[in-house]
Design a protein that fits this description.
The chain has about 260 residues and is mainly β. It is about 10% helix and about 45% strand. The protein contains 3 helices and 16 strands. The strands form 2 sheets. Strands 1, 2, 3, 4, 5, 6, 7, 8, 9, 10, 11, 12, 15 and 16 form a 14-stranded antiparallel β-sheet that branches. The two termini are about 15 Å apart.
Length: about 260
Amino acid sequence: MRGLGLAVAGLLLALPAMADPAVDKVLECMRANVPPTLRIQEIQMQATDRSGATRTLKGKLYAMRDKGLLRAMVHINEPSDLAGASYLVRETGADRADEMYMFLPAVNRVRRITGASADSSFLGTDFSYNDVKEIENAFSDADGKLEKADQIEQRPVNVMAFRPKADQGSRYSLLRAWVDQKTCVALRVDFLEGQAVRKQLSAPVSALQQSGNYWYLSQAQMQDLKDHTNTRLQVLGVSSGADLATRYFDPHSFYVGN
């Protein structure tokens, strides 16, 4: 979506400033591929557990930049028991942690996602709330460096390594992203615990799609390599450049009437 969305949907809406010129060059390319506002008419997530049973969620994603800071909201329409569930990420751009909020119709209230709960599953999928936030804000809570170039399906990619800052409380020791050199979209992201890859987000080159001047991924998969589960994400109906109502990104109203 930048998340789920950005590496997921190629929506890298907020990027950190780096001192390394080589890193800056890649990040500038990413920035040039970022629309100021973005609406995804439908996202679909199919979660498969260890037994092979599946559950499909459908919804929408809205994202924008406000003075350079990310605002992104996911609203779930299906299945019926989760209809109306909504998730909001607000980047702070300060020393304090980014804000994450969740609304569940069953309890009819908004709760702030903090601490250990941020690593819990996002509505039963293989994405945690922190995973969604890290992808959506393009690892801006991490220190990055450029590693040796690689290829995915014979396409040149830049490999970026992001080490979460200690004060962010991330469960991961390192996140590594394979960024397509032509489109500046991440085709793969590894989430490491210690030296081992715990989760892997990946997409085929055929998933690269263009909307106007911007590139995004039409599909991607998140695999939990320890629990042997996976979630497939599909992105449909992308539009950019349109005005979005500020209520989508307000903690008091983001869940209303989407």
